[in-house]
Predict the structure.
Amino acid sequence: MKLKPKYFEDFEVGLNFESEPTLITKEEIIDFASKYDPQSFHLDEEAAKNGPFGQLTSSGFMTLGKSFTQIFKTGVYDGTSMGAWGIDELRWTKPVYPGDLLKTKIEVLEARKSAKNPRRGTTRLKHTVTNQNNEIVMTWISNQMLRTKS
Amino acid sequence: MKLKPKYFEDFEVGLNFESEPTLITKEEIIDFASKYDPQSFHLDEEAAKNGPFGQLTSSGFMTLGKSFTQIFKTGVYDGTSMGAWGIDELRWTKPVYPGDLLKTKIEVLEARKSAKNPRRGTTRLKHTVTNQNNEIVMTWISNQMLRTKS
C-alpha cells in the first residue's frame, strides 16, 4: 500500500496508518548483529540457547531500523522528511525471532511547528511494532521533522 | 583498552568509562541506509546535497548501533549482559559525516535490582557520542539488564 507524501500539516494529531509486513530472517539477524550488536544471543544460534532468551533473537536496534523503514516505504516521507532529532520511550516488550513477520503502525501524538523556521515542524509519532501473533514487540516515539507545505 | 566483564553490582552510580574511537566511512553509511534507513540524504551523495544537511550523513540508527558496539567491545558486557528493555531520551544533536571518528562515553545514572528476579538488575546508562572535534553528536540512555554476581 503506497501512500502519498505527507507534509507537516498532513500529520494531524490522531492520524494513524500501518505498514506492510516484513519477514525477519536468521541470516539478516546474524549479519546485522555482527556489525551493530555483537552479543552472542543475536549472533550465534548455539550460544543463544544458553542466553537470556533461550534462542536467537533480533537485535533491538535492527528491529528499530526495520520499523522505521517499513513506515518510510509507505511513501509518506518522500521529499518531506527532514530527519529526526530524537527518540523517546523506546521499549522492547517481546523478543523478535527468526521467521517473525513484523508490521508497524504509527499514530500522531503531537505536531509542533518550528518557532525558528516556518518551513518545518516536528511531529511526535508513536510506533507500535507487532508480530504475526499480534503481540507488541516494540514501541517507540520519534521526533520527526517534516517540511511544511508553504 | 579491554575492561573486565562487569556484573550488575559493578555498575555503581557515577562510574564512567570511554570506548576506543571508530571511523565512520561513506561505504558503511550507504550500506546501512540501504537496509535500515533509506532516506536519500543517507543513501546518495548527490541527492544529499539538496537534503536537509547539504551532504551525506549517517543514519542515526547506525550511529546508535555503532555506539552500543563500541561499549560492547570494551568487554564490560562479556557474559553479563541480559539484553536491554528500552531506551530513553535519545537525541541526535549534530550530523555524523563520512570520515568522522566517533567515540562513546558511558556513565551510570541509576542501578536497580529486579524485584522479581534476584539474579538480575537494570542499570540506566547515559551514552554520550562525540566526534573528532569533541562535539556531541548523540546522547541516549539505555535500560540495560545485567546478571548479578550471586
